[in-house]
Amino acid sequence: xxxxxxxxxxxxxxxxxxxxxxxxxxxxxxxxxxxxxxxxxxxxxxxxxxxxxxxxxxxxxxxxxxxxxxxxxxxxxxxxxxxxxxxxxxxxxxxxxxxxxxxxxxxxxxxxxxxxxxxxxxxxxxxxxxxxxxxxxxxxxxxxxxxxxxxxxxxxxxxxxxxxxxxxxxxxxxxxxxxxxxxxxxxxxxxxxxxxxxxxxxxxxxxxxxxxxxxxxxxxxxxxxxxxxxxxxxxxxxxxxxxxxxxxxxxxxxxxxxxxxxxxxxxxxxxxxxxxxxxxxxxxxxxxxxxxxxxxxxxxxxxxxxxxxxxxxxxxxxxxxxxxxxxxxxxxxxxxxxxxxxxxxxxxxxxxxxxxxxxxxxxxxxxxxxxxxxxxxxxxxxxxxxxxxxxxxxxxxxxxxxxxxxxxxxxxxxxxxxxxxxxxxxxxxxxxxxxxxxxxxxxxxxxxxxxxxxxxxxxxxxxxxxxxxxxxxxxxxxxxxxxxxxxxxxxxxxxxxxxxxxxxxxxxxxxxxxxxxxxxxxxxxxxxxxxxxxxxxxxxxxxxxxxxxxxxxxxxxxxxxxxxxxxxxxxxxxxxxxxxxxxxxxxxxxxxxxxxxxxxxxxxxxxxxxxxxxxxxxxxxxxxxxxxxxxxxxxxxxxxxxxxxxxxxxxxxxxxxxxxxxxxxxxxxxxxxxxxxxxxxxxxxxxxxxxxxxxxxxxxxxxxxxxxxxxxxxxxxxxxxxxxxxxxxxxxxxxxxxxxxxxxxxxxxxxxxxxxxxxxxxxxxxxxxxxxxxxxxxxxxxxxxxxxxxxxxxxxxxxxxxxxxxxxxxxxxxxxxxxxxxxxxxxxxxxxxxxxxxxxxxxxxxxxxxxxxxxxxxxxxxxxxxxxxxxxxxxxxxxxxxxxxxxxxx
Length: 890
What we know:
This protein is mainly α. It is 54% helix and 6% strand. The strands form three sheets. A seven-stranded mixed β-sheet has the order 2-1-7-3-6-5-4, with helices on both faces. Strands 8-9 form a two-stranded antiparallel sheet. A two-stranded antiparallel sheet has the order 10-11. Helix 14 (334-347) links the parallel strand 5 (322-327) and strand 6 (354-359). Helix 21 (509-526) crosses helix 33 (876-889), helix 25 (631-667) packs across helix 26 and helix 25 crosses helix 30. 52% of the residues are buried.
């Protein structure tokens, strides 16, 4: 039960759960808040939510006693209950002061006194209580994201985890900085100054929670001074603003690397995360950040030793050992930027730090009154944060940068250099690092390349071709890809520590432009303009029916062919499948159960429904007719039908459909043998498998697999019980001895098969390397192959190789094809991508070797950049330009 449920729908007579904090100031504060609500006639949290515009879960967590709620949430709780906000603000500061005193180190040689109810005591209390995994928490968590630079420790192993993560993050961004040529020949100087005062809180308000006078830091600087400025901000909160292409992302990469170089062992780790994938309307910051980091760094998904199920990323966030660096708040849809700032404020406690980048105009629109969503209040600034605005690049810096990179070809830039600093279109265009970088790639020769084969940069000064700065920028975007795919005379050697680089492949400019334009249009059209290019989302550009139609056709042809050639099969399986779908799909539609998670529960619902229907009908037939002929094969068919409709029908639909289908299979055993069976079974199986794949196929990369002892044992026991029960039903009308023998044979075979399948489990987490698109792709492909082979082998072992089922080897193989392929598509994304990739390659939209092309575009061409497990175009403006060109071509 979530916190909100526990507070809003408490059963009559059931006492509320006591606060998690031990006796002390925090517990007294929480109990007083609860008493205030009781004195106000205990309004439901949904009513309180409507009064103060904070989510019910956030309000409920304010009084769970685990941590002191931030001041705004506490006052919102008081306001919703009609209390005196001034009085409660004084109480809140008293508790906060007690916590601050308790966190100070004690005298030398002694132990610091820790008053009960302090932050440390609260932490000790919560770590003794089993905590659920973050993925099971409510979507509206108000838990902290980051804490002070010297946090408390959950366990002795946390220092090792955070140090290994710091090494991993540093290697990741050092490699990415080299691929982006940030330091080649040198970083283009970027300067900044304090942002418009309307975009940040007044310094007195921002430092109010520090409870001491702190002078405002000097925010003006440039080049490599951002780490120094960030260290001087006592609240450790910074907003980086700038125009498109002003160098915000590169500056954040440099900030992360500088902070990691200065970091001491056991200190917090800055983690740079693109904000484009965050939907603050549906997920709070903590939940989204946890999932994003677990994908980018799979080792963080593992459990901390001795923590009773707390995963590493949760432990690091709880202990304040991660500093979120959110890049590109402007890439969130307009209507969600206001809620995003609200979510950040709700998640952060006074000592928590964060860095956010955004375009200045979009940030201004988000924080101004009426910022675009019901979540926002007036105004909604990022609390306790300083803000800086990046400047245009100095013309002298542009000349130095391009001249040094061009080397002996610098004289070609003389007309452009002369125009810099004036009002010429080329001068106004070359005011951002993005445009300077594009011009460098287009006009400067690479190592060993003759400058005579390159375009002349003097063309940028032609005012007839380029009457304004926008025309120059569009030209640079259009010429960038042809320049990036010029064939280098000497491929760049890979350094020994940069393993996994892809050798430069040969693609024509026309091919590269067509494929990259298609991907950009896919992001704009199918994914609402996100800048995150995830390989597992590429199938969304294909017709929705494609994967289901292909897999269903293969399974249907195999089933129909075998049914037509196997007299004893009949059309019972097809009749049962059609009956099951006729019930499951309407129930799914009526209940609105369209979730793709809880796959195990949906499979279990269909499985149990088919088993109960098959066994019940078999028992009735045995009693009424007096024969058990075909009973075990009928039960096996009922189970197959249940497993097929479970994923596509949801929980209720799968159970009811499986039950009806199981009954129909057993009643129709032996009906319509020969070609009629093929004509019925083939289309029915194709429809069932196609719907299961089309409606329930996996849309996120799979976890790495390993063999689980618990899974092997549990699956074997379940399979043994089911098989034994099914086998004993055969002897119901024959003889106890015959039923016992058949039950043992069927139980052993079914137990072996079930244990084989259930033995697959998640692999232990590893923090030695981070996730990349190619590593996730390889892992997902391995998962698909392993699941398909294991399930297929289990089907053959559990049917054709056991006596009593009366199933031929051909029928067993056909069942293995249908069920194994379905299982593979439900457990991994690779199958769906493989089908979509063939579809797109045949139509000329994408290459056959898609991942090789994407890796080459990132590592050798500089067209894409990598952020964890995602690719992005070098800049969002390049993506939009390519997408616009796609619209023009249509």
